[in-house]
């Protein structure tokens, strides 16, 4: 067997077909077999040996490029590899791509070494190669570390720190970082049916509406990984809505409006459950002030708001109608007239809440 | 007071962490020039220090400036213990010493450490203020330009050729000094690197002095070689061609105004070494028959032996060289030069008059018999012997110069094998390019005496145009460049037919039909544009590997000397067969390498085969063997069929179908073979009288089969080892895609099947190469060069370098490549499934498995985007055809970066100026091989780093390409048990600035890149 076998070019030319397989975490042999099955060998008369050698060669190159890929800004200031900007861009973008179902498994968890050591479970569950899981985990962790203390827009920070050209990818990372920062609980059994996209959607809305970068927030200096503290404090004021007189008033408005648009059966069940539901929505709101409650946001929403409706087979449409009526009629309450600030907070909370709630409302 | 060197250390970036506790580094830089040392401040706690220092000034003699590089050492400051080394930057100052070159070197340089590789970059500005020096006895040779480029550099005009220059510098190898036992590997490596660059500086300076003495101004085709002799030291040899160049715009100066100078190495200087030395002169080895006894056609193989220098017989030359009538001045010059050796491989039109053939000489010496190893005398004497031998061969061929000359060595323990080769030729030194570019090269029409001939050459305004010839040429032209005026005289034999130096088949020149040409022509040069070729070129390689006993010293040397001629004969034989199987009759760029290993001897020969229209078409090779049984007869016939099939396939591949084989008129009564078809029991040759006989002793013998089974390049890929590809014009070669270096090393298990194993090894190297570059098709691999080695017992190493150039298919050229009437032949050719890969056919005609192949080949990117398998069906195929242009564009980078190319030009670009030649020796060592990814990882990283450093130097000089790049040395020593590896690499090339078509030439700010006249006051000493 040959024991030295290398190919070096003046320019770094990446075979992206191979690169993709490498990113998937395939071993040299698996990769070569995969390529052979695609028929790459027929064209040149090369043999499997040569394919293996080429694969090894490329893998070595990727492994040494990985040091740069981890800190992509270094591409600009290194002389070792001559790479054209286009290739560089694709290299980085592909390196930071991830599998949604892998990320789903680590979403909201503390990005600790222990979690990394347990990635083999994730790998087993998701059928994604362990090496790829590790890469995805490391990427998330690195992005998190890099931007958690950085002021300014999360998305823009991620794009500039990691030379990402796609803002959708950066947005996803922003959501992941946001989730990780608040350590949202996502693993409870009742949350099992939620996909990465569901969380992504919710997190994005929370970032745009509840964090420091929200339009309602006047203090933009702080980071948007964190929820707007002033807003959270204001949310405490919503507690007043749980007082009996307000609940009754609100219930009256809601049921009146819904009388025409809801089926009778639904209307009846709502009448029955209204009190607990309304209480749950508002207690989640003022609970956001405590970070422990924040972590349980998703499970609380599912357990206390969504599940009762699901049990009585409400459709998403019906749910939507109810929630929007619930939100709108809130403004007609007498307490809102006395405290105008309350209605701003109410809207800011309810808008995002409704979106999250509906997203999570899986039939 | 020759010069003030000014150095400014600006900044560094991405330095390694040297202090674990803080994760930071306290860096400072030591600046060393000669013996003087200065330092920057310590920049505390940063991996990105910004010194922005003042100018450090050094007053240096120009001798030192030439010999020694500027040495910058980055260190980590440590208050209590010794400072830790981070790495070094060596800057060669020679480019600053030439007038037209930039006066500033500025940019980021990788900080290189022999133990860790590149560790960050250092930003430096270097300037020199030079004072003119009129001292007659000076030891420096500032101002002499050195070009690795083996031709007249672009933008220059050859004004005068002064001849061959050579020099040899010897020193102790620090690796073998006693001190090496106690110092660290790092300081040992650094001492070696420093010594190498100092020796190399000395060598160039000394050669420069010789050039000055000759009255020249530049050296072209400059080559440096390192001989690591081990105990007896390091030798650096340099050879080149001293010339006077003029800017192409300048008016021509009459070369007659200059006094011609004598070439320095005269045979008289060479004192024969007194020590008993085992040596072997191969000069008088006549072609040897290797065939068995009793073969009926044995005479045939002899008769078709082509002219080849190293097989010539000295005595038959009969001193014709001196007897040429001295008619005009240029002939006097060339006579005075006494068979000059030119290291160039491409020549201006009109320079070459006739090509003789390859001349070579080899000799085996013993290193431990050198009397005083520190002195260069013994080695000088060796080389002088070799050169004298080359000259005598040349004379025997009736030629008066050697072109495309090169020298090389192979060392194994105490044995050194010296070889030299070149092409014997008649040249015209008195060349006025201005005239010759406007007028066609003189068409030599008259046969007979030479005086008439040269008289005609003198009055070159009188132009003969042979109408028939012109018709014939245009009829055959078809593929080649339309511009150059072809001159068949180059192929005419330089000697009289009656006194040919060796048995040879002579025929009438197929173009002018007035002079004799040989049936085969081997040369070491690139294809001169005046020679007309048909079809495409083919990469041809012959390989021989033989086991060798383990004798010591003299016994060993004797054995090697005895085997060499046989190997040479076998190589030659393989080359001839491979040429004929491809229907070709000429080899350009022939390179031979012989390597002595511990347990084997290796010889390889590579060249680019072409079909020259003045030379006769080669006959169909016919197999003849001793057939004892019917079975064998069948096998023989099968083999013959294979040959036939192969021949046709090659003709398709190389576009040689237009060549008619039957146009031969054997007019000279020289040895034609007497073995015509009357004795043949296999009459498969298509009514062709003249045959080329291949002998098979044993049908089980694989040697013939092996010669047939070369790995063929995939369709759309062209391979050659010359600078340009015969059959493609410079417009077709659009841009550089990739310069590649491949290193292979493998252990040979059994010495019995050595030759087969050896061939298989090369084949796999080719397959790897083709596979690796498959996505770049259509492309041409130019200047593919092989260097073999036998580093340890039972080990074979191959280093392949070359460049992949994008072939522009937008011109009509490509249509003729793919849409030729080949399908017709293709139908006749039996093909089975995937094996039909060598056929270029229009895609729509291809069905089944072969169809998939073609798709795979041509449209790999399609597959990436659309997913695999989709391209197999017909619809996809049609779509793919329309997309073919896009495919090629995927790899035509808009990004150019710094090109590094072994070619003398940059495809698709024009060289604006030469900035300086670069030559550096790198050493890299590691004691943690496993951690860096094994020996492979180590090598890959190292070569990548070497290229990075080369690019940084080119760009710091304001260049954007390095042409004539050559990795002259790549020595890998590895001990996997100790987890250690060491590698030495020497690279060289010419830094240039090249501008691309349609690109505005970058305007370089005057302040930086041109020397202000006021900066250099003159002093007379």
UniProtKB/TrEMBL annotation, chain A:
Domain of life: Eukaryota
Entries under InterPro entries matching the protein: FIBP
Cross-referenced Pfam families: FIBP (PF05427)
GO cellular component, one term: nucleus
Protein name per UniProt: Acidic fibroblast growth factor intracellular-binding protein
Automatic annotation (TrEMBL), chain B:
UniProt GO BP: intracellular protein transmembrane transport; positive regulation of D-glucose transmembrane transport; positive regulation of protein targeting to membrane; positive regulation of vesicle fusion; protein localization to plasma membrane
UniProt cross-references to InterPro entries, sorted A to Z: C2_C2CD5, C2_dom, C2_domain_sf, C2CD5, C2CD5_C, C2CD5_YbjQ-like_dom, C2CD5_YbjQ-rel_dom
Presence of keyword Iron-sulfur: no
SUPFAM superfamilies on file: C2 domain (Calcium/lipid-binding domain, CaLB)
Alphabetical UniProt keywords: Coiled coil
Domain C2, chain residue ranges per copy: 1-109
SMART domains, A to Z: C2 (SM00239)
Domain of life: Eukaryota
S-adenosyl-L-methionine recorded as keyword: no
GO molecular function, one term: calcium-dependent phospholipid binding
Coiled coil: 629-656
GO cellular component, as recorded: plasma membrane
Gene3D superfamilies (UniProt xref): C2 domain
Name the record gives this protein: C2 domain-containing protein
Segments of this protein annotated with the region Disordered: 249-314
């Amino acid at each position: 067997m040959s024991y030295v076998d290398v190919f070096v070019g003046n320019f770094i030319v990446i075979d992206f077909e191979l690169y993709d397989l490498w990113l998937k975490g395939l071993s040299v042999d698996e990769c070569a077999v995969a390529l052979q099955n695609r028929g790459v060998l027929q064209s040149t008369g090369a043999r499997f040996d040569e394919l293996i050698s080429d694969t090894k060669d490329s893998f070595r190159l990727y492994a040494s490029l990985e040091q740069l890929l981890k800190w992509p800004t270094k591409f600009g200031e290194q002389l070792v590899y001559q790479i054209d900007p286009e290739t560089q861009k694709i290299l980085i973008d592909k390196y930071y791509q991830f599998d949604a179902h892998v990320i789903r498994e680590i979403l909201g968890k503390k990005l600790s070494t222990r979690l990394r050591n347990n990635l083999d479970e994730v790998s087993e569950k998701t059928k994604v190669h362990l090496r790829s899981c590790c890469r995805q985990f490391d990427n998330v962790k690195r992005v998190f570390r890099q931007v958690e203390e950085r002021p300014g827009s999360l998305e823009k920070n991620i794009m500039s720190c990691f030379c990402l050209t796609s803002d959708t990818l950066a947005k996803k990372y922003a959501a992941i970082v946001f989730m990780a920062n608040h350590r949202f609980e996502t693993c409870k059994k009742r949350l099992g049916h939620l996909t990465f996209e569901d969380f992504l959607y919710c997190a994005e809305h929370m970032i745009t509406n509840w964090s420091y970068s929200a339009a309602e927030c006047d203090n933009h200096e702080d980071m948007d990984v964190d929820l707007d503290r002033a807003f959270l404090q204001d949310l405490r004021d919503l507690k007043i809505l749980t007082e009996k007189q307000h609940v009754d008033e609100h219930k009256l408005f809601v049921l009146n409006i819904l009388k025409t648009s809801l089926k009778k059966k639904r209307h009846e069940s709502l009448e029955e459950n209204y009190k607990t539901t309304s209480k749950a929505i508002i207690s989640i709101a003022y609970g956001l002030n405590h970070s422990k409650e924040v972590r349980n946001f998703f499970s609380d929403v599912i357990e206390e708001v969504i599940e009762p409706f699901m049990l009585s087979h409400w459709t998403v449409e019906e749910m939507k109608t109810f929630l929007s009526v619930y939100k709108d009629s809130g403004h007609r309450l007498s307490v809102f007239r006395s405290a105008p600030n309350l209605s701003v907070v109410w809207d800011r909370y309810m808008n995002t809440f409704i979106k999250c709630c509906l997203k999570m409302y899986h039939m | 007071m020759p010069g003030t060197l000014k150095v400014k250390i600006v900044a560094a970036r991405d330095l390694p962490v040297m202090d674990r506790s803080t994760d930071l580094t306290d860096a400072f830089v030591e600046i060393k020039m000669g013996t003087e040392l200065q330092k920057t401040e310590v920049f505390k706690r940063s991996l990105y220090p910004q010194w922005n220092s003042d100018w450090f000034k050094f007053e240096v003699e120009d001798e030192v400036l030439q010999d020694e590089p500027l040495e910058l050492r980055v260190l980590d400051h440590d208050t209590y213990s010794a400072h830790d080394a981070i790495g070094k930057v060596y800057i060669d100052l020679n480019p600053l010493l030439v007038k037209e070159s930039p006066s500033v070197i500025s940019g980021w340089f990788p900080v290189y450490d022999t133990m860790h590789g590149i560790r960050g970059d250092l930003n430096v500005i270097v300037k020199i203020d030079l004072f003119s020096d009129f001292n007659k006895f000076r030891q420096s040779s500032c101002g002499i330009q050195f070009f690795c480029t083996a031709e007249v550099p672009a933008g220059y005009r050859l004004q005068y050729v002064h001849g061959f220059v050579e020099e040899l510098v010897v020193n102790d190898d620090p690796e073998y000094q006693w001190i090496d036992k106690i110092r660290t590997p790092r300081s040992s490596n650094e001492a070696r690197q420093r010594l190498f660059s100092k020796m190399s500086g000395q060598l160039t300076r000394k050669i420069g002095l010789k050039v000055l003495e000759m009255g020249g101004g530049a050296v072209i085709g400059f080559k440096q070689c390192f001989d690591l002799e081990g105990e007896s030291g390091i030798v650096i040899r340099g050879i080149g061609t001293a010339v006077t160049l003029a800017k192409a715009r300048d008016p021509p100066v009459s070369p007659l105004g200059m006094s011609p100078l004598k070439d320095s190495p005269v045979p008289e200087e060479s004192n024969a070494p007194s020590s008993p030395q085992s040596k072997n002169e191969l000069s008088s080895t006549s072609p040897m028959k290797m065939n068995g006894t009793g073969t009926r056609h044995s005479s045939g193989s002899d008769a078709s032996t082509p002219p080849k220098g190293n097989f010539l017989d000295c005595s038959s030359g009969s001193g014709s060289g001196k007897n040429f009538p001295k008619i005009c001045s240029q002939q006097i010059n060339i006579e005075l030069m006494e068979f000059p050796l030119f290291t160039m491989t491409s020549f201006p039109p009109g320079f070459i008059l006739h090509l003789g053939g390859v001349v070579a000489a080899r000799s085996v010496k013993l290193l431990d018999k050198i009397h005083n190893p520190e002195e260069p005398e013994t080695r000088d004497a060796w080389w002088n012997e070799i050169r004298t031998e080359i000259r005598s061969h040349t004379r025997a061929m009736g030629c008066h110069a050697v072109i495309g000359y090169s020298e090389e060595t192979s060392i194994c323990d105490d044995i050194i094998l010296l070889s030299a080769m070149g092409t014997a030729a008649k040249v015209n030194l008195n060349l006025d390019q201005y005239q010759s570019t406007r007028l066609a090269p003189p068409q030599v029409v008259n046969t007979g005496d030479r005086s008439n001939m040269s008289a005609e050459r003198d009055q070159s305004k009188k132009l003969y145009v042979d109408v028939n010839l012109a018709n014939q040429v245009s009829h055959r032209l078809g593929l080649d460049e339309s511009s150059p005026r072809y001159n068949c005289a180059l192929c005419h034999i330089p000697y009289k037919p009656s006194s040919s130096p060796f048995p040879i088949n002579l025929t009438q020149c197929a173009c002018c039909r007035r002079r004799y040409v040989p049936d085969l022509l081997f040369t070491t040069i690139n294809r001169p544009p005046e020679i007309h070729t048909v079809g495409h070129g083919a990469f041809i390689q012959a390989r021989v590997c033989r086991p060798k006993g383990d004798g010591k010293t003299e016994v060993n040397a004797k054995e090697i000397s005895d085997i060499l001629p046989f190997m040479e004969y076998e190589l030659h034989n393989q080359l001839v067969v491979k040429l004929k199987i491809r229907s070709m009759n000429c080899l350009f760029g022939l390179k031979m390498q012989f390597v002595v290993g511990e347990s084997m001897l290796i010889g390889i020969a590579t060249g680019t085969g072409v079909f020259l229209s003045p030379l006769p078409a080669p006959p169909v090779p016919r197999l003849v063997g001793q057939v004892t049984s019917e079975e064998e007869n069948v096998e023989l016939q099968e083999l013959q069929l294979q040959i036939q099939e192969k021949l046709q396939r090659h003709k398709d591949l190389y576009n040689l179908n237009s060549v008619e084989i039957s146009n031969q008129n054997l007019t000279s009564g020289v040895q034609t073979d007497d073995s015509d078809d009357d004795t043949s029991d296999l009459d498969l040759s298509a009514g062709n009288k003249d045959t080329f006989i291949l002998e098979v002793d044993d049908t089980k013998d694989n040697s013939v089969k092996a010669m047939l089974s070369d790995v063929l390049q995939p369709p759309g890929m062209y391979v050659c080892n010359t600078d340009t590809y015969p059959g493609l014009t410079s417009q077709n070669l659009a841009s550089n895609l990739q310069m590649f270096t491949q290193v292979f090393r493998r252990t040979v298990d059994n010495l019995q099947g050595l030759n087969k194993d050896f061939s298989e090894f090369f084949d796999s190297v080719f397959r790897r190469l083709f596979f690796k570059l498959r996505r770049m098709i259509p492309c041409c691999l130019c200047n593919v060069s092989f260097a073999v080695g036998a580093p340890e017992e039972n080990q074979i190493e191959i280093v392949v370098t070359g460049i992949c150039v994008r072939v522009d298919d937008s011109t009509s050229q490509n249509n003729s490549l793919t849409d030729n009437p080949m399908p017709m032949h293709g139908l006749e050719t039996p093909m089975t499934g995937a094996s039909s890969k060598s056929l270029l056919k229009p895609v729509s005609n291809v069905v089944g498995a072969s169809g998939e192949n073609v798709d795979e080949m041509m449209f790999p990117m399609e597959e990436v985007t659309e997913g695999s398998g989709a391209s197999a069906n017909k619809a996809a195929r049609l779509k793919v055809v329309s997309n073919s242009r896009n495919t090629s564009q995927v790899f035509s980078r808009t990004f150019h970066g710094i090109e590094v190319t072994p070619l003398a030009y940059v495809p698709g670009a024009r060289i604006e100026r030469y900035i300086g030649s670069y030559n550096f020796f790198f050493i890299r060592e590691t004691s943690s091989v496993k951690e860096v990814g094994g020996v492979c990882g180590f090598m890959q990283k190292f070569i990548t780093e070497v290229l990075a450093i080369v690019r940084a130097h080119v760009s710091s000089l304001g260049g954007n390409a390095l042409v004539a790049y050559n990795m002259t040395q790549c020595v890998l020593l590895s001990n996997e048990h100790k987890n250690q590896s060491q590698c030495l690499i020497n690279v060289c090339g010419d830094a240039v600035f090249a501008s691309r078509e349609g690109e505005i030439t970058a305007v370089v700010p005057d302040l930086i890149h041109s020397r202000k006249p006021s900066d250099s006051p003159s002093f007379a000493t």
